[in-house]
Amino acid sequence: MARPRSEDKRNAILEAATKVFAEQGTSAPTARIARMAGVAEGTLFTYFESKDVLLNELYLTLKSGLREQMLEGYPHRASARERARHAWNGYVDWGVAHPEGRKVMAQLTVSERITEDSKTVGSAPFGGVQEMLREAMAKGVLREMAPAFVGALLSAMAEATISFIEREPKRAEPYRAAGFEAFWNAISKS
Amino acid sequence: MARPRSEDKRNAILEAATKVFAEQGTSAPTARIARMAGVAEGTLFTYFESKDVLLNELYLTLKSGLREQMLEGYPHRASARERARHAWNGYVDWGVAHPEGRKVMAQLTVSERITEDSKTVGSAPFGGVQEMLREAMAKGVLREMAPAFVGALLSAMAEATISFIEREPKRAEPYRAAGFEAFWNAISKS
Amino acid sequence: MARPRSEDKRNAILEAATKVFAEQGTSAPTARIARMAGVAEGTLFTYFESKDVLLNELYLTLKSGLREQMLEGYPHRASARERARHAWNGYVDWGVAHPEGRKVMAQLTVSERITEDSKTVGSAPFGGVQEMLREAMAKGVLREMAPAFVGALLSAMAEATISFIEREPKRAEPYRAAGFEAFWNAISKS
Amino acid sequence: MARPRSEDKRNAILEAATKVFAEQGTSAPTARIARMAGVAEGTLFTYFESKDVLLNELYLTLKSGLREQMLEGYPHRASARERARHAWNGYVDWGVAHPEGRKVMAQLTVSERITEDSKTVGSAPFGGVQEMLREAMAKGVLREMAPAFVGALLSAMAEATISFIEREPKRAEPYRAAGFEAFWNAISKS
DNA sequence: TATGAATGAGTATTCATTCAT
DNA sequence: GATGAATGAATACTCATTCAT
Predict the structure, then answer these.
(1) Taking the C-alpha atoms of A124, A126, A130 and A132 in order, what is their torsion angle to the nearest 10 degrees?
(2) Are residues D25 and D92 in the same domain?
(3) Can you give the residue ranges of the HTH tetR-type domain (chains A, B, C, D) (predicted)?
(4) pLDDT per position as a tens digit, C39-57
(5) B51-66 burial string, b = 16+ CB within 10 Å, else e?
(6) At what angle do helices D147-167 and D129-137 cross, to 10 degrees?
(7) Are residues D74 and D91 in the same domain?
(8) What value, to the nearest 5°, has the Cα angle with vertex C81 and ends C189 and C137?
(9) Are residues B123 and B151 in the same domain?
(10) Number of domains in chain B
(11) Which domain CATH number covers D3?
(12) Quick one: which of A101, A168, B149, C14 has the fewest CB in 10 Å?
């Protein structure tokens, strides 16, 4: 009967946190996040029990946003190469479109405040990507390795690519394309 | 302020900082570092003007240690592939041998407290690596890209490889070897 | 604001407050009291304007409960000694039966948040006790003192007795009896 | 070689705490205590790890001061009655001389923040008091009870006496004397 | 130079109370 | 009236840095 909790407010806090953390690191005060989100200091804690909880939920939210973009329009029936390209482009495009989210995700990934649980959930295989990786690597030099390793290479190489695009936005397309070729060669050639 | 007396103390602080930051993140108190280094709280500040200075010098020290290992015994006259393998192995071996240093370097790399200057110095081309990269990429899919991009791929892929070795130390050699093949295919194949 | 609807709810809050304050002290949050009483946080404030009001009303309620038990079946026509014993037993029995109430009353008695008014009302003479004290002390060493002083001794000695009974419940009766003899000697002997 | 910790400062904090807690209860802010003690907010925590530690140490300090006064000039060879009178007077005089300390001690005695350990140490028998109580009660109505119970009666009755002296300081002596007679009768008469 | 006590700005979190539903 | 989300002042404690010894 009382005022219901607002999903909007929760999202506003998450977005504000992304901005603030991107600017000042995860040691930025919760008060600043609250102000930027347009809520009172105390309100932040009705949506997130503690700063650590906020950090973990933000991490999962960012990971989830990235996945969504990788899966959006995923061509399940195309060749492994085309599916790989789709996933690659999704990753790179997400990173380019969300520089703050990417920065924060990078910080959270190496933070001691993200629990093992969050990391596990955040890195779990998803959609058809796992399967695509398996197909792609089947005859390549990595054929003996775990798909997760190939997935890690995808992330690592995409990150490197994004950071170069950020420095030279005008060459975004060449970087994205060349990065993909490098990735594809890395995992599929023998 | 003149050069501080004891180079030993300076190193002790740097080592202590590595351990403490690896355990608790870079927000760990300087007092704890001082204690672990066996010096008084105030003494830390005669060796490093401020915590930020310590952070930056630690970053450069770590980067420098990594380079040393990549260059140690570098086969300047061998084939590009062999030189690449040497650099790759140097990176991976350093990471495996210095898990704390690697963890801290990862944190510092994404920290707002590391200055642009430090990042530039820390990522500058060195030894014969730049040249090796140029040769290796000459005919590959990355031929149009900057060598720095290829260097970034080396780091990124080596990091991914190290983190998998950390999870499965017994398969260190397969990971290191397969990782290198993937890297080599990524940059040299067309 | 008119009289709140439910006397039951008011009592539930008072009881919950007793439990919670006994466990955590009077600095326990009102939210916890509300939860234990089975009402919403805000509802508590329709029954008690503020936490201070709650504290004061609880104090008076507890005092009142104690009095009731001291007066229940009070033998107005018996000897002073018997009347004194009745009052004494009433006090001790109440304390033993209501350990939480006793604990909270002790805290409130020394709290700055209980007003002078409440203290006055809570310590006012009542029933035939005042008169009994007067008779009992008439020939004793305290004959020159105020009855209130004797009343204070009764409370003090009964409290001490109760706390020993709490530690050794099996010797409740000896403690209660010996305590009364000590009290009676204290006030009646010359 | 650095500035040594100052016993004076520690005492200043303890005294300030006594004043502030007497005025506002133990929920008074540590910042106010620090200010009143003339030290920085943080300094309080170099002398007392936490507010709870301060509370416990203050409790023990107050108890210890009370004991000192009870034992000062204690007539070990006098009659039990004279020794009892000395202890009684010591208690009452301490209470009258330290109204703030007494008030705070009363609050701490019923506080959940005082550990069992502190309570045990603070109530341990001391000097020749225990022995005196034993002698005095040997033939009285309490002969079967523990000396600790008699000690508790002494405290309880002395407290009641002090509080009446506080209301009527001019009748301090009569109250003190009559209170003692009452106490003596309570424990020694059969 | 080395030490560690002193400083006080900074911060996560709590909580009585208000008020939209 | 009942609910519980919203508020923001209040507060214990931390910590980089300074400075007396």
Answers:
(1) -160
(2) no
(3) 7-66
(4) 999 999 999 999 999 999 9
(5) beebbbbbbbbbbeeb
(6) 100
(7) yes
(8) 40
(9) yes
(10) 2
(11) 1.10.10.60
(12) A168
CATH code at position A152: 1.10.357.10
Contact B163, B109 (CB under 8 A): no
Q: Tell me the residue ranges of DSSP E strands in C6-158.
A: none
3-state secondary structure at position C73: coil
- pLDDT digits (tens), chain A, 190 positions: 688 999 999 999 999 999 999 999 999 999 999 999 999 999 999 999 999 999 999 999 999 999 999 999 999 999 999 999 999 999 999 999 999 999 999 999 999 999 999 999 999 988 889 999 999 999 999 999 999 999 999 999 999 999 999 999 999 999 999 999 999 999 998 8
For residues D12 and D88, state if they share a domain. no
A-facing residues of B in 138-157 (CB < 8 A) are 140-142, 144-146, 148-149, 152-153, 155-157
Percent of chain C with pLDDT over 90: 94
Distance between first and last Cα of chain A: 65
Q: Is B186 on the interface with A (CB under 8 A)?
A: yes
B157 and B95 within one domain? yes
Cβ pair A159:B163 closer than 8 A: no
- C-alpha radius of gyration, chain C, whole number: 18
Is C12 part of a structural domain of the chain?
Answer: no
Give per-residue pLDDT as tens, D136-148.
999 999 999 999 9
- The whole domain housing C135 covers 74-188
Q: Do B66 and B43 have their domain in common? A: no
Q: Is B57 inside a domain boundary?
A: no
Q: Residue ranges of the alpha helices (H) in chain D? A: 7-24, 30-37, 41-47, 51-71, 80-97, 99-109, 116-123, 129-137, 147-167, 172-188
Please report residues of B whose CB lies closer than 8 A to that of A182: 140-142, 153, 186-187
Residue D117 and residue D182 in one domain: yes
One-letter amino acid at A116 equals E
In terms of domains, do B75 and B152 share one? Answer: yes
CB-based contact B153 A182, cutoff 8 Å: yes
**Which among B27, B141, B182 has CB closest to A141?**
B182
For the cut 60, the answer to whether the pLDDT of residue D135 exceeds it is: yes
Q: Contact at 8 Å (CB) between D154 and D183?
A: yes
The C-alpha atoms of residue A53 and residue A47 are separated, in whole angstroms, by 10
Kindly state whether residue A3 falls inside one of the protein's structural domains: no
Q: Please write the tens of the pLDDT for every residue from C25-42.
A: 999 999 999 999 999 999
Record the tokens describing residue D3, joined without a space. Answer: 């500035």
Question: Is B148:B78 a contact under the CB 8 Å cutoff?
Answer: no
